[in-house]
């Protein structure tokens, strides 16, 4: 059994900051890429940021310079530091991880989602 548990969402004023965390637990051999996606009402889910095991990152153009993704491989945890938040960042944020399970199967997992609301 593998699960991703997210935390850190909430309500913040424009210009503020939030830090999201996502911890993977269960029968895990290793984790490849980890990332954050978001989905606003009436819109498709989109990639926000991703990070490889080695620490290489990529970001959506809309968040470059404001958001920072990082990970702690020892804790199987990925973080998303969000600064200078804008109302258009309002969405449900989902964690995703490419996991090699203890049964050697490679499976992509999603977290349950955490709401981020930015007021103007």
Strand and helix map with partners:
Elements: E1 2-7, E2 10-13, E3 18-26, E4 28-39, E5 46-51, E6 57-59, E7 67-72, E8 77-82, E9 91-101, E10 106-110, E11 114-119
Parallel strand pairs: 2-11
Antiparallel strand pairs: 1-3, 3-8, 4-5, 4-9, 5-6, 7-8, 9-10, 9-11
What does this protein structure show overall?
The chain is mostly beta strands and 120 residues long. The protein has strands at residues 2-7, 10-13, 18-26, 28-39, 46-51, 57-59, 67-72, 77-82, 91-101, 106-110, 114-119. Strands 2, 4, 5, 6, 9, 10 and 11 form a 7-stranded mixed β-sheet that branches. A 4-stranded antiparallel β-sheet has the order 1-3-8-7, with no helix packed on it. The chain starts with a strand and ends with a strand. The mean pLDDT is 97.
Keywords:
120 residues; 62% strand; 7-stranded mixed sheet; 4-stranded antiparallel sheet; mainly beta
Low-confidence stretches: none
Task: Say how many strands there are.
Answer: 11
Structural class, by secondary structure, is mainly beta
The arrangement of helices and strands along the chain is EEEEEEEEEEE
- What is the subunit organization of this protein? single chain
Shape descriptor: elongated
- Main beta sheet: 7 strands, mixed
SS element count, helices: 0
CA gyration radius, whole angstroms: 14 Å
């Amino acid at each position: 059994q593998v699960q991703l548990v997210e935390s850190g969402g909430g309500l913040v004023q424009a210009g503020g900051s939030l830090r999201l965390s996502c911890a993977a637990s269960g029968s895990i051999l290793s984790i490849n890429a980890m990332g954050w996606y978001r989905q606003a009402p009436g819109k498709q889910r989109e990639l926000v940021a991703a990070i490889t095991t080695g620490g290489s990152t990529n970001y959506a153009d809309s968040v470059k310079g404001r958001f920072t993704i990082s990970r702690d491989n020892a804790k199987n945890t990925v973080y998303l530091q969000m600064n200078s938040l804008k109302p258009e960042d309002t969405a449900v944020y989902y964690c995703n991880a490419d996991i090699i399970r203890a049964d050697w199967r490679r499976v992509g997992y999603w977290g349950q989602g955490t709401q981020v609301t930015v007021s103007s």
